[in-house]
Amino acid sequence: MASSSSLTLSQAILSRSSIPRHGSASTSSSLSLPSFSGLKSNSSSAVIRRRGPTTTRLPIRASAAVETLEKTTEAELVEKSVNTIRFLAIDAVEKANSGHPGLPMGCAPMGHILYDEVMRYNPKNPYWFNRDRFVLSAGHGCMLQYALLHLAGYDAVKEEDLTSFRQWGSKTPGHPENFETPGVEVTTGPLGQGIANAVGLALAEKHLAARYNKPVARLYVILGDGCQMEGISNEACSVAGHWGLGKLIAFYDDNHISIDGDTEIAFTETVDTRFEALGWHVIWVKNGNTGYDEIRAAIKEAKAVKDKPTLIKVTTTIGFGSPNKANSYSVHGSALGAKEVEATRKNLGWPYEPFHVPEDVKKHWSRHVPEGAAFEAEWNAKFAEYEKKYPEEAAELKSIATGELPAGWEKALPTYTPESPGDATRNLSQQNLNALAKVLPGLLGGSADLASSNMTLLKMFGDFQKNTPEERNVRFGVREHGMGAICNGIALHSPGLIPYCATFFVFTDYMRAAMRISALSEAGVIYVMTHDSIGLGEDGPTHQPIEHLASFRAMPNILMLRPADGNETAGAYKVAVLNRKRPSVLALSRQKLPQLPGTSIEGVEKGGYTISDNSSGNKPDVILIGTGSELEIAATAADELRKKGKAVRVVSFVSWELFDEQSDEYKESVLPAAVTARVSIEAGTTFGWGKIVGAKGKAIGIDRFGASAPAGKIYKEFGITVEAVIAAAKEVI
């Protein structure tokens, strides 16, 4: 932490946020928590600031200029501000001739109240650690968020960004992208992902509050009917209710319209009752179009509920203000058209040119820049006091907030020799997780009801539960899709939070959408995937992954790692921890494997490397390439071929992605172009291996579904054997 010790916490966080996109001692559960008094001001010590016809509490006194302005604000200026939001969205979609104007037009009132009256943030430092956070789960309505960020003074969304909505290189893409637009917390668009991300963000807040006595910032979400229909939202909201995430407040945009028309055609459940059954507090705002005081009252009520999340159902009219398209599917996903834009301007009394922000609205919103700076300054001062009193805890929290890993953390990784007992890599994974948990304060995670099989329990910690949120074992239940998205939220909360989640490798099918968002949004989740092949045996083809390795190798910005033994498992974890902007998938065996000579942590970092070679001059007769449990087969086959006088190189190909990133010189030293006699062996599809073995090589694998039988029998029947490798080698030499 020395390099950032002279910086404020906020400066350190901001410096860490500039890392290019797509780049490459723990506290016990019985810790007596230090006081974090004043770190975020309690409402009892706050002063009341007028905002519109109601009041809110802030930890600083508003300037006289702001107070004078707000005496003249009241309902008229609020309405003007709301219409500014609406028309910024209308104009941007119209200019792009692409987008979704209906949601911003309907949700503008709740958006205005959240960003102008409720949330604490600093527009000039979107990464301020103690900010309130907003997630637009209904990401198609992103012009709502862009308009709010613009009005609030975020540098990422200037007027020119609004006018280039959905254009090449724009900071205002077609759905919110956290890696493109500072101020956007998570990447949304695939419906339901955002609310699940928000559950992860809220989990992170509750966890950090419990460990460091840090007052909890709030999470606000807007989700729509589409999010409600997607199963992931129910998975995530179910476990959110179980965990009692009281700082999570979700606004359900109840407009009864989806792309195909009125939701009566497919979605007639009583959402209120379902959420009550999930353990949420539920409030209904019946007039979300103009009922500003109803929205404010609902937020006040939600804040008073401490032991459960709140769903505020806000009944709105999609496309509010459009005389001919409001309350219809035609306003959902396409521009209004010039005639309807003009009619809407007349209907709402809006005489301004496109993209115009009236001066009084601009002046009203301008106060958020100095207020945000004051919020952050207060936080920094209180954190400095905390740091003096509790240096160890402050150092941990700073590590989590900035992503700067503790010095020497990698020394905790276990190492193995060929004499070490053989073991399944899932068991070796648990050894690594427990070693890392002692030195990485931000490591936490769990399994989808398979902890005892995935071997993911941190033995020195208990379970994260409603009443024990300081613990670091997360019980996700049988909710793979929700689990992945929740972990994305945890990872994107703070760069030093390192979430891992686990299930059987084949069940990544249930969470692939969340894993793709991990890769897209640069969320460094560690996916611990066990039972990685036909080697799991008797459970049969429903549980035996075949195409999965290839599918993740095809996905951009994700590392697919398949370690063969203890050293390679440790290497995989080192790589995964270091890649904070790229998720990692670790494919781990159920069956016991030997500790192989020649494997190393350093080799894994190269992706592919030589573990044995009796050739000279970089001219082996044949190169045998294996991954995971099949590396042992390749090594044994090499021994047999060498007995017959062959010069054989054995290459462990743990990660294709890492190997591709190495220099041409290094790749030539491992796989010389002149050596075309190559054989690969992997207990999965041969798809893609042609890239590695070349046209004259042989790829041994499985291009059909598996079978139910003991692992040894399946390997023999499918030809994943030493004999098959030797035969293939003889063919290509």
TrEMBL record:
Mg(2+) binds at residues 225, 255, 257. Pfam families: Transket_pyr, Transketolase_C_1, Transketolase_N. One of its GO terms (biological process) is pentose-phosphate shunt. The active site is at residue 480. Thiamine diphosphate binds at residues 140, 189-191, 226, 255, 332, 507. Signal peptide: none annotated. It catalyses: D-sedoheptulose 7-phosphate + D-glyceraldehyde 3-phosphate = aldehydo-D-ribose 5-phosphate + D-xylulose 5-phosphate. Binds 1 Mg(2+) ion per subunit. Can also utilize other divalent metal cations, such as Ca(2+), Mn(2+) and Co(2+). Its cofactor is Mg(2+); Co(2+); thiamine diphosphate. Substrate binds at residues 100, 332, 426, 453, 531, 539, 543, 590. One of its GO terms (molecular function) is transketolase activity. The record marks 100, 332 as: Important for catalytic activity. Residues 24-41 have a biased composition (Low complexity). Its EC number is 2.2.1.1. Keywords: Magnesium, Metal-binding, Thiamine pyrophosphate, Transferase. Residues 18-53 are annotated as: Disordered. GO terms for cellular component: chloroplast; cytosol. Residues 423-595 form the Transketolase-like pyrimidine-binding domain. Could be involved in the conversion of sugars, which are a major phenomenon in the rehydration process. Homodimer. Belongs to the transketolase family. This is transketolase.
